[in-house]
Amino acid sequence: MLDLTTIGGGYQGRRRTLSLALLIVVNLLPIYGVLSLNWDVGALVILYWSENLVIGFYTLVKMLVNSPIGGLFSGAFFCIHYGGFCAVHGLFILTLLIDPEAKVMGETTWPFVFVFVELLVDVVTQVLTYAPPAWIIVLAGLMLSHGVSFVVNFLLGGERYTANTGSLMSEPYGRIVVMHLAVIAGGMATMALGEPLAMLLVLVLLKLAVDIGLHIREHRKIAARQVPAAGIA
């Protein structure tokens, strides 16, 4: 049987420290964009919205690892539902903080519920036209950070043994809502003040602080589920 009693300390603790440290480093990269590449509020918000797609990707991978057969069906539903959620969210950000005249979607051509996937494709295409220089480098860093967390916490850390498809499917939504309420509020405040450099840096640090808090809370909740599992084992 898997011994879960060691989770949360020793080698496991060092693994989680590694994933948290990488999260901090990657979230500080946009400071270079602000200081050296003249990134504005729109550039930062686009980057943070793009991270939703990274989170969705790893959520889908977790579902497939957790249940290869059931994950196929649940994953298909997740792609449609989460894709629509991200699309509407992206459209809201585009028109509110970047370009009020942005036109994302004309006549729909994809059938049934796949219209939500079509909307997501259109929003991503539109976002790419506003993406700042070096955006893809920071996005790759976010992909790496979430990938390390996936390997360290989910695969090696034993989180997959207490996960289920339903909880994995719902996991990203709460994080995204909390994160982007903070980012949007900070972005609007920054725009209202004329986007001074100091406020742009505060926005980066605000996102980092919220991300750290959500990361720690998420893995503490999972660890709490692992303790009873260890007793059963």
Write up this protein:
By secondary structure, the protein is an all-alpha fold. It has one domain (10-232). It contains 8 helices and no strands. The chain has helices at residues 10-28, 30-36, 41-66, 70-98, 115-130, 135-155, 165-192, 197-232. Helix 3 (41-66) packs antiparallel against helix 4 and helix 3 (41-66) runs parallel beside helix 6 (135-155). It starts with 9 loop residues before the first helix and ends with a helix. Residues 1-8 and 229-233 have low confidence and may be disordered.
Labels describing this entry:
233 residues, disordered N terminus
Question: Which strand-content bin applies to the residues?
Answer: under 5%
Total beta-strand segments: 0
Report the helical percentage.
over 70%
Radius of gyration: 19 Å
- In DSSP terms (H or I, runs of 4 or more residues), the helix count works out at 8
SSE blueprint and pairings:
Blueprint lengths: L9 H19 L1 H7 L4 H26 L3 H29 L16 H16 L4 H21 L9 H28 L4 H36 L1
Helix pairs in contact: 1-6, 1-8, 2-8, 3-4, 3-6, 3-7, 4-5, 4-7, 7-8
State the gist of this model.
Helix content is about 80%, strand content about 0%. The chain has about 230 residues and is mostly helical.
